[in-house]
Amino acid sequence: MKRILSCMQPTNRLQLGNYLGALRNWVALQDEGQDENGSANECLYGVVDLHAITVPHNREALANSTRETAAAYIAAGVDPDRSYIFAQSAVPAHAQLAWLFTATTPMGWLDRMTQFKEKAGKNKERASAGLYSYPILMAADILVYKATHVPVGDDQKQHLELARDIASSFNEKFNGGEEFFPQPEPVITGAATRVMSLRDGTQKMSKSAESDMTRINLTDDADTISKKIKKAKTDAGVVPSNDKECEGRPEVANLIGIYAALSDQTKEQVMAEFGGQQFGVFKPALADLAVEKLSPITNRMNELMADPAEIDAILRAGADKANELAQPTVDETMKLMGFWS
Ligand code: AMP
Ligand code: TRP
């Protein structure tokens, strides 16, 4: 049996990249091998609120953002009857294991992490110690469940490699080279594993980018989605017919990738259909497709958010199960490290 684990931060609103790069694959893995006995895979999906406080956060908004992120998971197709949805802060084992790893991970491994450099920018001295050690907490999120598969977007590849290194180093140092923590496999699939900004094809689409016009939020209404796509940056050329015609046109290639992912086609199929046409034809088609695929999610999210008590009940049940699975791992880890117990 595969054990699937993945998480998102409850910061701002979820955007199209979160959906196409990660969330859609979470649902696919949940549904894989499904039969009358239930899901073939055991799936755990966390809302990582302890990660969210590594940058200045709004205390009034945190709990509700956690609910909203859980609602987005459910609206996108994660079924709380088959998968466990929980808040990271409700499962103390994550932070406990993170400390055991922090104390034993070389600084040099963290120095290599490019996301910290991007996020801290020029203000490295002011960035929190938590932002720096963030990938260790992420490794703990994964290893505390001995997860075998981790569906994420392309930007998390390096963090997954660190989690694998931490697992092997622990096995080597504290378990005589035998496997205690398995090697988690990244699952990075689909036509849009890295969705780029609608305004600058060299920047990742992100929920924290300043301008809202760079991204499509899962909470945007149909008019907003259409407006953002119609205003997305392209060029004076026509829609490309092959990869070669995408070269040097990152914004155009990005829109093709989004269309392909939303319509479950390859980029080649999309270019075969639209190649040679004007963007004035392609963009409205993309806008219609995006609205058709995203508005059911938006509507369902709004319905769910109208009943926060129901979401809280789901999060509580998920945390009970997550605690049951995670705490024994910390207990055993401490024993292997030689703690008094
Ligand atoms: P975050 O918003 O940083 O918590 O990311 C949650 C998940 O969404 C991770 O698996 C990311 O890899 C994925 N993700 C975030 N932004 C993008 C993007 N622009 N394209 C593809 N995947 C993304
Ligand atoms: N670091 C991930 C991101 O920013 C979120 C995350 C935290 C995560 N813990 C995780 C993803 C564990 C997968 C597994 O996108």
What report would you give on this structure?
This protein has 13 helices and five strands. The chain has a three-stranded parallel β-sheet. It has a two-stranded parallel sheet with strand order 4-5. α8 links the parallel β4 and β5. 41% of the residues are buried. It has helices spanning 16-31, 49-52, 59-76, 93-102, 107-111, 114-120, 129-143, 157-174, 222-230, 250-262, 267-274, 279-305, 308-337, and strands spanning 3-8, 42-47, 83-87, 149-151, 185-187. The chain folds into two domains: 2-193 and 307-337, Rossmann fold, CATH 3.40.50.620; 220-303, Tyrosyl-Transfer RNA Synthetase. Bound molecules: adenosine monophosphate and tryptophan. Tryptophan is lined by residues 5-9, 48, 51, 138, 141-142, 150, 152, 156, 159.
CATH evolutionary superfamily of the largest domain: HUPs
- Written as H for each helix and E for each strand, in order along the chain, the element string is EHEHHEHHHHEHEHHHHH
CATH class of the largest domain: Alpha Beta
The strand count comes to: 5
Q: Which shape, going by the Cα principal axes?
A: globular
Largest sheet: 3 strands, parallel
As for the CATH topology of the largest domain, it is Rossmann fold
User: Low-confidence runs (pLDDT<50, min 5 residues)?
Assistant: none
